[in-house]
Recover the amino acids of this structure.
C-alpha cells in the first residue's frame, strides 16, 4: 500500500541526552487528502509523540492513526500506540519497559500487542549526531482477523538515529526488527525515515518514508510490504 500524504506537523521534539534539565516535549502531525471526479479518495493521518525527561528517568509515548477510503470503500484503518519508560544506569546505559499496540484491519490481524523489557545504549550524543540502540525480550499476543489468536515469546532490536547535517537540515531514522523466538520464520521489520528542512525558528518542511514488512502474513492475499510516503509541514516550539 502506497500513500502520498500532505501533512501538517504540530509541535516537534525527541529526547536522548543525559543529564539534562527537566523537559516535556510533544510532536504532532496531521494530514488530510481528498480527491473527487473519476475517482473519489479520502485519506486522514495523524501522529503524536511525547517525551518527558526527569534526570535518570525518561518517558516516551507515541501514537499514530491512518485511515483511507476510495469510492466510499474503506481500504486503510491502522492505529499504533507505544509507551516506554527508560531508567538510566550510567551516562549512556539504561534499562527500559515498553508496551506496543497495533490495530490494522488490512494486515490480517485484528490487533497485535507486545510487552517487553530490555537494555539500551546512547551510542552517540553530540551536537550533530544522536544514536540510540535498544534490545529486548518480551511477549506478543496476536488476534487474527480470520482464524483465532496466537501468543509467543519475542525478541526485538531497535535503532533511533538523528543526524543534523546542517543547521537547517536534519535526517532521522527509526528502525525496528522483531522476531518470534519460537518460530524465527515469523518476523517484522519497521523503518521510518525522514528529512527536515528548517524554514525559520518554528517551521520546517519534511518528507518521510515508512516501511512495514511481515515475512509471513497470517492469511492469503495479504502483501508482505506496506509503505507510506509523507510530505510534511512541521511546527516546533
Amino acid at each position: 500500500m502506497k500513500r502520498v500524504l500532505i501533512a501538517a506537523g504540530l509541535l516537534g521534539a525527541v529526547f536522548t541526552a543525559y543529564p539534562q534539565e527537566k523537559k516535556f516535549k510533544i510532536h504532532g502531525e496531521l494530514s488530510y487528502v481528498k480527491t473527487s471526479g473519476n475517482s473519489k479518495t479520502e485519506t486522514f493521518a495523524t501522529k503524536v509523540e511525547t517525551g518527558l525527561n526527569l534526570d535518570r528517568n525518561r518517558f516516551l509515548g507515541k501514537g499514530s492513526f491512518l485511515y483511507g477510503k476510495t469510492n466510499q470503500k474503506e481500504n486503510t484503518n491502522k492505529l499504533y500506540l507505544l509507551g516506554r519508560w527508560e531508567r538510566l544506569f550510567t551516562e549512556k546505559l539504561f534499562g527500559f519497559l515498553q508496551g506496543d499496540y497495533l490495530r490494522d484491519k488490512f494486515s490480517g490481524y485484528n490487533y497485535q500487542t507486545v510487552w517487553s523489557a530490555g537494555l539500551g545504549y546512547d551510542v552517540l550524543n553530540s551536537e550533530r549526531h544522536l544514536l540510540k540502540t535498544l534490545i529486548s525480550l518480551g511477549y506478543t499476543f496476536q488476534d487474527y482477523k480470520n482464524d483465532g489468536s496466537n501468543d509467543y515469546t519475542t525478541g526485538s532490536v531497535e535503532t533511533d538515529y538523528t543526524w543534523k547535517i546542517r543547521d537547517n537540515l536534519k535526517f532521522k531514522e527509526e528502525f525496528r526488527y522483531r522476531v518470534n523466538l519460537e518460530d524465527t520464520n515469523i518476523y517484522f521489520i519497521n523503518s521510518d525515515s525522514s528529512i527536515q528542512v528548517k524554514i525559520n525558528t518554528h517551521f520546517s518542511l519534511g518528507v518521510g518514508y515508512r516501511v512495514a514488512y511481515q515475512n509471513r502474513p497470517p492469511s492469503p492475499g495479504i502483501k508482505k510490504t506496506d509503505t507510506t510516503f509523507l510530505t510534511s509541514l512541521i511546527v516546533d516550539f
Residues 4-235 form a domain with the Porin fold (CATH 2.40.160.40). Confidence is low (pLDDT under 50) at residues 1-22.
